[in-house]
Amino acid sequence: MSNTELYLLSAHDLAAKLAAKEVTSEELVRVFADRIEHLDKDIHAFLFVDVDGALQTAKRVDADRAAGKKLHPFAGVPIAIKDNMVQRGKPTTCASKILEGWLPPYDATIVLKLQEAGLPILGKTNMDEFAMGSSTEHSAFGPTRNPWDLERIPGGSGGGSAAAVGAFMVPWALGSDTGGSIRQPGAVTGTVGAKPTYGAVSRYGLIAMGSSLDQIGPVTRDVRDAAALQMIIGGHDPLDSTSLDEPVPDITGALADIGTDASGLRVGVVKQLQGEGYQAGVLQRFQQAVERLQQAGANVVEVDCPSFEYALAAYYLIMPAEVSSNLARFDGVRYGLRVLPEDGEVTTERMMAATREAGFGDEVKRRIILGTHVLSAGYYDAYYGSAQKVRTLLQRDLAAAFEQCDVLLTPTAPTTAFKFGDKLDDPMSMYLNDVATIPANLAGIPGISIPAGVAAEDGLPVGVQILAPARGDVTMYEVAARMEAQLAESSEPMPPCPAAAWKESAK
Questions:
Q1: Residue 55's CB: how many other CB atoms inside 10 A?
Q2: 429 part of the active site
Q3: Could you tell me the end-to-end alpha-carbon distance of the chain, in angstroms, rounded to an integer?
Q4: CA–CA dist 274, 416 (Å, integer)
Q5: pTM of the prediction?
Q6: Of 82, 90, 113, 124, which one is the catalytic site residue?
Q7: Contact 71, 172 (CB under 8 A)
Q8: Hey, what CATH topology would domain 3-255+264-308+392-501 get?
Q9: How confident is the model at residue 164 (pLDDT cuts 50, 70, 90)?
Q10: What pLDDT score was predicted for residue 505?
């Protein structure tokens, strides 16, 4: 394999080449930077590319390796991060005009962990503004395109990270998941996206959307890479009050000799997350994945989670309420955009109103207004309070389900990637994309989306979601790895993304 084709390799394979001194980290950074330069003008996965910063890290890693110093196993493997994670002195916008040009004065904990491991950070990826959306169409700086079909969405809010990995512009990336923003883009781009147990990865330095729901996680092209990346970024952080104070489990060790055998595995298929509203090709691939598990020895049962019918409604009350609170800090007073009123008296209140009017997009405004309403006097109990009760019922349903099953399986998204503009005028239709992913965030449990093949009607990727109990991340990854191996050995394995063959252009 020539150096120009190194982009096709997994993070594990690149790490092996680095360890064997067959390639340098500087060479890898230049290979991926070249891919970004040639392809991203068509895909628009990146909002900021930091070749100089990545090269600086790469050269340091190469010098340490040459000197015989002990390095992290993945030292020198480049990565990208979603643009809602702060990095000192690097533009961080959350894809919003209100933060355009802002340079954070500190590093997120995950950035420090990446730096400690010696991973060159190649840049910041595009997203729906403040992570609000399911298509990356709500970015203030333009949409990201799906590498499987440039006329279609790459999912959201983390479409930039998924498209960057799917188009082989980076071997792996980080995203954040509030209601499915890692897993749904994974499903529609044919990549792997994992949301760890709530608290397993520090949220310090993640610009908050919904604080009780947000979780940082890996975006990769295979399960083994996702497990390794979660181990790099995971662990207790005293700066995050919600961080789990316990050791990082050895996920990669658990996957070392994993095969296809699923004997003794108890799998639950959620009754409420299939059938009406789901694309035929999605259901077909999902059912095939379930059948492969059964053939490999798994015991599959249907699980009834009645509260799932109300999960979407509860989420779209709880999340906007937290959005309303979290986004109050973007006021034009301390940092970011400041717009003065064009007429009348210039007061702090009127300046804040003018700034927020100019700086926030329509979807962000929609959710702030809704959230402010549901938290207001006279409506709190009827809306926000009731939604929290539904959240409790959902957690109880999941607890009961996990008494019968080791994991739950669902389609990740009801459809394959839709075309740009198809759902912009219908917010409710857009929100329905998250119907299968939201329960994991409401309950704080881990979830992962892995490719399940392509839909027969359009040839676009389909994802299957695996849910495990809280702190059951190892189990989740073990099942995901088995299912990945089963698909690879099946009569219809996952076809390669068209981007694998792209050199100079994405068109």
A1: 18
A2: no
A3: 24
A4: 14
A5: 0.96
A6: 82
A7: no
A8: Amidase signature (AS) enzymes (3.90.1300)
A9: very high
A10: 84
Q: Which residue of the set 25, 181, 243, 324 is catalytic?
A: 181
**Alpha carbon distance 377, 407 (integer Å):** 41
Q: Is 376 a catalytic residue?
A: no
For residue 89 the two structure tokens come to 């002195």
pLDDT over threshold 60, residue 1: no
Output the CA–CA distances (angstroms, integers) from residue 338 to 90, 100, 247, 353, in the order listed.
Answer: 20, 11, 43, 10
Alpha-helical runs (H) found in 127-216: 159-166, 183-189
- The structure tokens listed for 134 are 């399911």
| CB-CB neighbours of 180 under 10 Å | 32
Hey, what amino acid is at 219? Answer: V
pLDDT digits (tens, 9 = 90+) for 352-395: 999 999 999 999 999 999 999 999 988 998 999 999 999 999 99
Give the C-alpha separation, 58 to 50, whole Å: 12
Q: Is 157 a catalytic residue?
A: yes
Question: Where, residue-wise, is CATH 3.90.1300.10 in the chain?
Answer: 3-255+264-308+392-501
Task: Give phi and psi for 205, each to the nearest 5.
Answer: 90, 0
Q: Alpha-carbon dihedral of residues 249, 252, 253, 254, nearest 10 degrees?
A: 80
Residue of 25, 96, 135, 157 with catalytic role: 157
Indicate the pLDDT class of residue 334, thresholds 50, 70 and 90: confident
The strand ranges marked E within 68-225 are 79-82, 121-125, 173-176, 192-195, 216-220
Distance CA 296, CA 485 (A): 11
